[in-house]
């Protein structure tokens, strides 16, 4: 409930379609792009410009008439710019509800002129933190006066139009020329403005809570994240579910550029995310083919050239050509024409990559159904992962393949002879590839490619069976990886019976001795990583 004493009845709602002319504008922007063009357009429309320090200088240097904020407040900017616009002569002009006779009279009495348009963008706080700046430097980039002006004008949108996005300047200039903003337009601008300051404050509060003492093992007492609506999706996981895509500020799949194909679906995004995660676990050229968030083929060309993505794709596809039908493919190198020719032969839902050769685009765009996505160059995996649960959210650091036990050189040979270099490379591949498979995961590999994958089973024995069955004849002589220890020897025995010649697994079961003895009896080398990679 408001504590203000109403001096007159609440004003009636104006006609939402009526345009309110813009006569006086306040411009205060850190990002000066488009400022002069906007200022010129406003001046041409007869608008008086009022502006802060460097923004005013930029406008004046371009020969535009501009009133400096200091000349309005009678108070010089001070404390290194910490106080510029925080003054009643500015905020009175932003907050006066011009629908009210009493507010208009008070402005008159106080000698304050109202603003009709406010253009503000904020100090680059997030970018400053991301650059590795010190706490003091980051704090200095917390904008105070800007959000105050944005929130004041957004609250007062019946009288003021507020603009926070430089991309909107051309539309703003045209609207001013056309006679000003309607109430409906000012309301839309206000909603965007509140979202802008809310998202800015969430970034500040999340950072500051991570700087001060954490709540638990390195996690802050408070954390937040904001997302912007990017697209409505046709439906969710099933046709009766509504769905939309929201974008985080960190570049990734949600901001990938779609070069071709039908609209991405909800399930396409889920699978594309899993595919990208799998392909980018490798530094050498690698291809992952995903169905229902699980790989049905993964391959790497160790020490290969970029052009070897075609070979990686052939090998990944050969793993399970039946399941690869309608798959989502991710590659960690630009798609070549050779790879494109191969992919074009197979019905594929999505192909995502850091880029596409022109010739590859020419080949693939002949297929009307395939979606081609270019991942942003600065895509980084989020350092933490969130998973919504009823009434809360689980947060964990991302599962990286960089634990000491993830390096083949650090593994312990539990039994059998040390394997040769090529076999060790295959075990290393299998270990990495296995991480992309939903638990319980068993992955058989040879020559840098998966040949049989058992995924998502509720016991390890069934996963082993599935992997062996899918590998068929290729199981004999292959190597195997298990994402977690064998609780009993039974799962391993299926692999041994199929002719697997080397195994890598975390170890750590109370029955390790039994499991290792089974491998030893079969003459199979078994390596223990000491690291586990469950993926649920
Ligand atoms: N403190 C204030 O009174 C204040 N008023 C406006 N600002 C910010 O100053 C920037 C513009 O400054 P300049 O025009 O000097 O480049 C804008 O990002 C605006 O949000 C302020 N600075 C930050 O708090």
Mind explaining what this structure looks like?
- It is built from 19 helices and 23 strands.
- With 536 residues, the chain is α/β, with parallel strands linked by helices.
- The strands form 6 sheets. It has a 6-stranded mixed sheet with strand order 10-15-14-13-11-12, sandwiched between helices.
- The longest helix has 29 residues, at 183-211.
- The chain is elongated and about 95 Å long.
- The two termini are 47 Å apart.
- Residues 1-6 have low confidence and may be disordered.
- Bound molecules: the ligand NC(=O)c1ncn([C@@H]2O[C@H](COP(=O)(O)O)[C@@H](O)[C@H]2O)c1NC=O.
- Residues 28-30, 52-55, 81-86, 120-123, 143-146 line the site of the ligand NC(=O)c1ncn([C@@H]2O[C@H](COP(=O)(O)O)[C@@H](O)[C@H]2O)c1NC=O.
């Amino acid at each position: 409930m408001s504590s203000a004493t109403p001096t007159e009845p609440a004003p009636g709602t104006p006609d939402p379609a009526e345009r309110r002319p813009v006569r006086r504008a306040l411009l205060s922007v850190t990002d000066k792009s488009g400022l002069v063009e906007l200022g010129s357009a406003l001046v041409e429309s007869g608008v008086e410009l009022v502006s802060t320090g460097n923004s005013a200088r930029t406008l004046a240097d371009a020969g535009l008439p501009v009133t400096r904020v200091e000349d309005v407040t009678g108070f010089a900017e001070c404390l290194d710019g910490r106080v510029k616009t925080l003054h009643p002569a500015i905020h009175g002009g932003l907050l006066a509800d011009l629908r009210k006779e009493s507010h208009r009279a008070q402005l008159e009495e106080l000698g304050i002129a109202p603003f009709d348009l406010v253009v503000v963008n904020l100090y680059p706080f997030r970018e400053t933190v991301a650059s590795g700046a010190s706490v003091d430097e980051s704090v200095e980039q917390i904008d105070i006066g800007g959000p105050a002006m944005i929130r004041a004008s957004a609250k007062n949108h019946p009288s003021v139009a507020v603009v926070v996005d430089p991309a909107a300047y051309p539309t703003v200039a045209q609207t001013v020329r056309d006679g000003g903003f309607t109430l409906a337009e000012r309301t839309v601008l206000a909603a965007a403005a509140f979202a802008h300051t809310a998202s800015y404050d969430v970034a500040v509060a999340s950072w500051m809570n991570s700087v001060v003492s954490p709540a638990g093992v390195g996690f802050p007492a408070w954390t937040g994240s904001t997302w912007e609506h990017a697209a409505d999706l046709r439906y969710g996981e099933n046709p009766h579910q509504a769905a939309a895509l929201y974008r985080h500020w960190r570049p990734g799949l949600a901001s990938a550029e779609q070069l071709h194909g039908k609209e991405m679906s909800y399930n396409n995004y889920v699978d594309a995310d899993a595919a990208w995660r799998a392909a980018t676990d490798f530094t050498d050229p690698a291809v992952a083919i995903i169905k229902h968030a699980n790989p049905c083929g993964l391959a790497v060309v160790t020490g290969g050239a970029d052009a070897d993505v075609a070979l990686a794709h052939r090998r990944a596809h050969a793993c399970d050509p039946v399941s690869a039908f309608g798959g989502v493919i991710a590659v960690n190198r630009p798609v070549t024409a050779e790879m494109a020719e191969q992919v074009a032969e197979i019905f594929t839902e999505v192909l995502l990559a850091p880029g596409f050769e022109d010739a590859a685009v020419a080949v693939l765009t002949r297929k009307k159904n395939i979606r081609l996505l270019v991942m942003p160059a600065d895509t980084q995996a989020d350092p933490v992962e969130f998973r919504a649960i009823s009434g809360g959210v689980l947060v964990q650091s991302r599962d990286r393949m960089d634990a000491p036990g993830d390096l083949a050189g650090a593994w312990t040979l539990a039994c059998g002879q040390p394997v040769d270099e090529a076999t060790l490379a295959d075990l290393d591949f299998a270990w990495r590839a296995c991480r992309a498979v939903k638990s319980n995961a068993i992955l058989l590999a040879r020559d840098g490619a998966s040949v049989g994958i058992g995924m998502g089973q509720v016991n390890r024995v069934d996963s082993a069976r599935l992997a062996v069955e899918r590998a068929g004849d290729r199981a004999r002589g292959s190597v195997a990886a298990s994402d977690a220890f064998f609780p009993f020897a039974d799962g391993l025995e299926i692999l041994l019976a199929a002719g697997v010649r080397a195994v890598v697994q975390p170890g750590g079961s109370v029955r390790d001795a039994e499991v290792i003895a089974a491998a030893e009896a079969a003459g199979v080398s078994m390596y223990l990583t000491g690291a586990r990679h469950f993926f649920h």
